[in-house]
Amino acid sequence: MKKGIIVFLFLFNVLTLPSQSFLIEAESFDTKGGWVVDPQFVEQMGSPYLLAHGLGEPVENAEMEVKFPTQGKYHVWVRTKNWVPGEWEPPGRFQVRVGEKVLDQEFGVTPGWSWEYGGEIEISERETEIELVDLTGFDGRCDAIYFSTEEKVPPARGEDLAQWRFEVTNQKNVPEKVEHFDYVVVGGGIAGCASAIAAAEQGLKVALIHDRPVLGGNASSEIRVHTLGIYGHFERILRMLDTKHYPNGSPEAYAEDRKRHKNVEKYENIHLYLNWRAYDANTDDDVIESVDARHTSTGERIRFEAPLFADCTGDGWIGFWAGAEFMYGRESVDKFDEGWEEFGELWSPEEPDGVVMGSSVLWRTYKDDKSYKFPEVPWTKDVVGDFAADKGTWHWEYSRADMHQVHDAEEIRDHMLRAIYGSFANEKKKPGNEQLRFEWVSYLVGKRESRRLIGDHVFTFNDARDQTQFPDSVVVEIREVDVHYQQNLKDASKPDFLSKAMFYKTGKYYIPYRSLYSRDIKNMFMAGRCFSASHVGLGGPRVMRTTGQMGAAVGLAASICKKYGITPREVYKEHLDEYMNLVLSQNEKVN
What would the mean pLDDT of 489-508 be, rounded to a whole number? Predict the structure, then answer.
């Protein structure tokens, strides 16, 4: 049970203050039991946290052993939240055990992220075990535990909390460890993996940074969306990374994880950083000089320096931090903005707005060999009503004009969890479903659209409809344009978490290389759903084999950049023939 002692606050993010106070970052628990590290919302709340994702059954305790500075009395605060406030009992409640004593206070009861006070406790042994004790299995969350000999609550949120956290953890302004690469790829989805492989095969030293323990992004076993699209010029590379066409949510995703990891890890010049989340891009004169990343459990930080970077984060985080221009939402049917050509796209509104395609949380059930009772979930009724289901498909999707897919991602995920638990509870009440139980529910949001970084060309619906061929066409697709909207927008009787799709069939269409590098950040590529596209233009090529083509294409472009010491734009302006020959030569390498 006991994995090690944290000695005077230097290991696992436990830091002593002069007042004999210290902070335990929950993600640093060395035995996490059934709790999982959730780093999806770091930018909004400042840190990963532990989540008790037990599907209605309490998870095993998280444990760690600490060494208190002195014996005596300490006040205890826990940073947490009641994720479904209302008249019902909070669904995500847990307790904290300190040594042999379980604190009387139940945590997870206050709306919004805040410090909940756990009282004062006597520490008689300096080496003491701390445990998180889940009470419900319904996604209780613990960000941090703070012990202090003074009765002074830490700052609750915002810049004050961030500064306090920075000081209490004794962080330096610059990560103490610096690594140097030819090419840094941030985001280990299909696009990021393909980009790393393509560049590595051309001899570049590549860093692939990914904030999860497994590669694949939406295709991983954590989210379980099968890959769609064609292979274009990159069949050999993409077959190393894609999936079979299994039902979304299938456990067959585990085998595809193993294939993907084996094929990425065989390249000696790909340096894989799993469970590392980028948090800043250091830029000078529109050039990214380095990207800083933090380990999601230990808090260790590394600065990654390189002449070239690829934003494959999906949300466009590297471009956002670097100051790149981006789009979000639907463009006007008439024009995107002053100085832009008129788009005149199908399905576009009269005025631009913040509507985008939504996020999904997939889930599966099965029939057990014995009856199983699921807890009452009154906190789901205002979301699901009487709606019942025994599985989730791509239709399970949530988007609203007044909710941002990046800034409000935790609220979006939590809304989908309520939809899942409530729909399942209603289904279980039907005769014959006594043995029905959850097999798996993701806690990660599978996003379709958020920020779209702007390149020298913005790919639009019109490019797909007209099948425009560009001199720098590096991505090829035949998939129909496919844009989603929420069902309740046209039928108020439908749940707000189900979507429909609008389709426009077209012939083969092409995406130019100029849509895959930033127009204002000189050394940044982008591949994946954050590439340069309009809202409707994204509808066709947003699927993973297509975004994998984008990743491979920019990986090859990075090799041309290195060869001549040039920028991504100069590849197009000065070495296009050589680059296109390199892209087209990939067809000859298919086994």
Answer: 94
Alpha-carbon torsion, ordered 247, 251, 257, 258, to 10 deg: -130
Mean pLDDT of the 318-329 span: 97
DSSP code, position 533: B
pLDDT tens profile 114-123: 999 999 999 9
pLDDT at residue 453 tops 80: yes
Instruction: Pull the structure tokens for residue 546.
Output: 């297509």
Lowest-confidence range among 9-18, 87-96, 188-197? 9-18
CA distances from 271 to 198, 210, 262, 304, 527 (A): 14, 11, 13, 11, 19
CA-wise closest residue to 327 among 537, 45, 586: 537
For 70, what's the count of Cα atoms within 13 Å in the CB-facing half-sphere?
A: 10
Write out the two tokens for 585.
């030569």
Confidence of residue 4 (pLDDT cuts 50, 70, 90): very low
Residue 36 pairs in a beta bridge with: 51
- pLDDT score at 338: 47
Task: Write b or e for each residue in 415-450: b if 16 or more Cβ atoms lie within 10 A of its Cβ, otherwise e.
Answer: bbbbbbbbbbbbbbeeeebeebbbebbbbbbbbbbb
In the chain, the domains with their CATH numbers are 5-168 (2.60.120.260), 179-326+449-456+515-589 (3.50.50.60), 359-447 (no CATH)
Burial of 177 (0-12, 13-18, 19+ CB in 10 A): exposed
Task: Determine contact, residues 455/517, Cβ cutoff 8 Å.
Answer: yes
Residue 292: other Cβ atoms inside 10 A: 17
Residue 328 · residue 353 · CB < 8 Å: no
pTM comes to 0.94
- At 567-589, the pLDDT tens digits run 999 999 999 999 999 999 998 77
Q: Hey, is 477 helix, strand or coil?
A: strand
Q: What is the Cα–Cα distance from 465 to 507, expressed in whole angstroms?
A: 8
Q: Could you give the CA distance from residue 289 to residue 518 in angstroms, rounded to a whole number?
A: 15
